[in-house]
DNA sequence: TACAACAGCTTTTTT
DNA sequence: AGCTGTTGTA
């Protein structure tokens, strides 16, 4: 089967796809078919006779790599088995594991997640007796922030504090001490954090020439996606892998650089042609995603940037509708208006083709409540990660104890549910368990006799230790043990958490050994990412929305201190990144873009609603690129007339259409039992005009639900 | 008196 | 969800 590349791609894309020999830098504007280009290039290489095993595809998330490989397989009609694809971190993890003895980890190593790193930081701090009783002492998260930033930007701690956290300067010596102690602790316990993966790989490739040559020979063709978000060490890794004359393609967009906070260096893109001699530069500027009015708005956002981007995206896709800027009275009514808008869009698009984006994870809370109440399913990306959720950590702590009985933090987690046992008692029990004398044994016997839950925990651990360490079986056993604890610990929402655990069990079943399972989970193990739910609205942080697109995009909380973030208002550099973030957010939209600017938001500190200032990214926009709607005190929306308008009068396409999604109506006269997608079976208690029901759901209590979301039984 | 339980407060972004 | 300060209990 032959693919008609010239027909499927535009000129620039074709050039990037067929330039397989030598270094290539592709500057790809938002929505310019970047993914398509990579996919077709994969296919082209294989069709030219390249062995798939000679290709390495480095992307920002593992999901992105898998998706691209799958799409290439689809158009090729053959498997790309053997192609290496994944994130820098996962590639590093695999390579380091295979060469552990070469980097001084003869007995292998354990990968830590962020929480582990922070906890070690804290215990190092405590051991050094630093910051005792000082309430304004930097928190463990701050300590870790500074340490990891210093590594990722390859600056001294001194320089990091100077540039980004001037107020922490008095703690400079402490930071240095803690950072050293942290590094030492990791070495002693054969632990690695995310940063170590990259730096140790760089070091390994630097000094081990045979390995470097071996990898260079193996990976004849290398592609790196999202190059604007790579940091210095990642750039060095690419150089090691490709050699200076390798066949390497980097794809990126300087206007979409949004990871400077973690050391990403846009200069990598500019340096690329200098490092790789004879680099061919290809620019993709035609946009295939968004209608022109949306691009008019996003181009305006870039106009305000201090760093000039000589980029002006254009599209053939027309629309007579401008993006909307809506000013709700408060963040509460904002949630309601967003729900209205989703209901409206739902008539035209599938739910998973609609997204609500925000700056930070917590900003969607009230919307999540509103969506649950009305019965719209949603899927959230960003914010608290799957493996960071408390119930997942509870279960994982048990696995950690099977792997390593000296893991004190895991013991604390595993005993957290035992009434009358706190951190001190756990430490005592821990000490007694690892001492072999009569006193300790007596103490243990006493405690086990006193706390039935402790006995059960130890029995379960013994059971797990005695059975073969197969992730699937272990998880199954654990879930049975953990079920009653889950229900007691999280009475409000345990069904949801249980679903998460079952998901974890499913994932575990796909692994044959424990270490790989745990490693993958810390690296990219968000199973929610894996399958995009069919019938659920997408809620996402802007960062997690990178590279994705939806027909309708709604961005909330566009006010000062939220978007841009309060933390970014100090330094011009940070504010510029917020602007690019805003650019990324708006360019996700294909047909509809709605920006919400609440006039007041709830402030937890003062406990009341406070007036806001609109985000500069909105106020800067010329009025010609959007339609403005204000929420009136009556709750409706009014279109504000523009100063200079000769446009057709306001379309009636506002939000005030009756929120009545199509679907089977429930017969009001028939009270009885019904079924709801989220709450399950319930008893209808009352009918509320015109189309709502009060239903009693076992485990959830009374809820008022719109008839369309109920199925009569 | 030591420790556990509870309530209240704050929350950027992520491999 | 974690940290801190406060209250409650053996």
Provide structural commentary.
This protein is of the alpha/beta class. It has 27 helices and 25 strands. The radius of gyration is 28 Å and the shape is globular. Helix 15 (about 330-345) packs across helix 16, helix 17 (about 390-405) packs across helix 22 and helix 21 runs antiparallel to helix 22 (about 470-490).
Task: Outline the low-pLDDT stretches.
Answer: 644-666
Helix percentage: 40-55%
**Largest beta-sheet characterization:** 8 strands, mixed
Net shape:
globular
Question: Widest sheet: strand order?
Answer: 13-14-12-15-16-11-19-20
What separation lies between the terminal Cα atoms?
Answer: 52 Å
How much is the average pLDDT?
83
User: What is the total tally of β strands?
Assistant: 25
- The helix tally amounts to 27
Residues in β-strands, percent: 15-25%
Coarse structural class = alpha/beta
Give the C-alpha Rg. Answer: 28 Å
Quick tags:
alpha/beta; 8-stranded mixed beta sheet; single chain; 6-stranded parallel beta sheet; 25 strands; 27 helices; 713 residues; DNA-binding
């Amino acid at each position: 089967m032959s693919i008609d590349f010239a027909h499927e791609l535009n000129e620039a894309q074709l050039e990037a796809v067929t330039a397989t020999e030598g270094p290539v830098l592709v500057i790809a504007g938002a929505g310019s078919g970047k993914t398509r280009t990579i996919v077709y290039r994969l296919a082209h290489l294989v069709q030219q006779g390249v062995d798939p095993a000679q290709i390495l595809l480095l992307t920002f998330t593992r999901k992105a790599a898998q998706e691209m490989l799958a799409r290439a397989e689809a158009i090729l009609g053959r498997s790309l088995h053997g192609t290496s694809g994944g994130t820098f971190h996962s590639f590093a993890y695999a390579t380091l594991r295979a060469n552990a003895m070469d980097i001084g980890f003869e007995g292998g190593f354990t990968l830590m997640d962020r929480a582990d790193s922070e906890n070690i930081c804290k215990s190092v701090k405590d051991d050094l007796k630093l910051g005792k009783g000082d309430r304004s002492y930097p928190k463990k998260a701050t300590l870790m922030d500074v340490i990891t930033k210093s590594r990722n930007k390859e600056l001294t701690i001194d320089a990091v504090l100077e540039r980004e956290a001037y107020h922490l300067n008095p703690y400079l010596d402490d930071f240095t001490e803690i950072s050293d102690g942290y590094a030492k602790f990791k070495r002693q316990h054969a632990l690695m954090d995310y940063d170590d993966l990259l730096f140790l790989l760089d070091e390994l490739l630097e000094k081990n020439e045979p390995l470097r040559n071996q990898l260079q020979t193996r990976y004849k063709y290398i592609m790196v996606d999202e190059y604007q978000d790579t940091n210095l060490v990642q750039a060095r890794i690419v150089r090691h892998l490709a050699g200076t004359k390798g066949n390497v393609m980097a794809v990126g967009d300087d206007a979409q650089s949004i990871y400077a906070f973690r050391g990403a260096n846009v200069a990598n893109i500019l340096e690329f042609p200098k490092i790789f001699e004879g680099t061919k530069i290809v620019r993709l500027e035609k946009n295939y995603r968004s209608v022109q009015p949306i691009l008019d708005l996003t181009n305006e956002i870039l106009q305000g940037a201090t760093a000039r981007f000589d980029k002006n995206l254009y599209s053939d896709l027309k629309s007579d509708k401008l993006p909307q800027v809506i000013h709700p009275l408060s963040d509460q009514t904002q949630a309601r208006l967003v729900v209205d808008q989703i209901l409206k869009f739902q008539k035209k698009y599938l739910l998973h083709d609609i997204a609500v984006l925000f700056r930070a994870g917590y900003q969607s809370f009230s919307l999540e409540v509103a969506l649950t109440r009305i019965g719209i399913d949603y899927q959230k990306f960003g914010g608290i990660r799957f493996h960071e959720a408390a119930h997942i950590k509870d279960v994982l702590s048990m696995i950690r104890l099977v792997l390593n009985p000296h893991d004190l933090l895991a013991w604390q987690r595993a005993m957290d549910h035992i009434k009358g046992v706190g951190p001190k008692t756990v430490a005592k029990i821990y000490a007694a368990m690892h001492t072999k004398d009569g006193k300790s044994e007596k103490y243990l016997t006493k405690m086990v006799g006193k706390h039935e839950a402790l006995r059960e925990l130890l029995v379960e651990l013994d059971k797990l230790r005695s059975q073969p360490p197969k992730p699937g079986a272990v998880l199954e056993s654990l879930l049975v043990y953990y079920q009653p604890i889950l229900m007691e610990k999280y009475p409000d929402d345990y069904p949801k958490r249980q679903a998460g655990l079952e998901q974890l069990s499913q994932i575990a079943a796909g692994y044959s050994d424990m270490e790989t399972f745990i490693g993958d989970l810390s690296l990219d193990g968000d199973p929610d990412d894996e399958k995009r739910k069919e019938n659920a609205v997408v809620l996402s942080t802007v960062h997690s929305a990178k590279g994705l697109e939806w027909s309708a995009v709604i961005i909330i909380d566009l006010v000062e201190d939220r978007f841009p973030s309060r933390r970014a208002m100090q330094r011009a550099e940070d504010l510029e990144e917020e602007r690019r973030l805003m650019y990324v957010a708006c360019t996700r939209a294909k047909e509809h873009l709605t920006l919400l600017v609440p006039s007041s938001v709830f402030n937890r500190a003062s406990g009341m609603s406070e007036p806001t200032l609109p985000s500069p990214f909105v106020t800067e926009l010329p009025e010609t690129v959007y339609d403005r709607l204000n929420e009136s005190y009556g709750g409706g929306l009014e279109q504000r007339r523009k100063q200079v308008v000769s446009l057709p009068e306001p379309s009636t396409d506002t939000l005030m259409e009756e929120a009545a999604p199509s679907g089977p109506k429930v017969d009001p006269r028939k009270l009885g039992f019904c079924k709801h997608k989220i709450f399950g079976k319930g008893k209808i208690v009352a009918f509320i005009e015109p189309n709502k029901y009060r239903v009693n759901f076992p485990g959830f209590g009374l809820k008022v639900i719109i008839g369309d979301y109920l199925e009569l039984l």
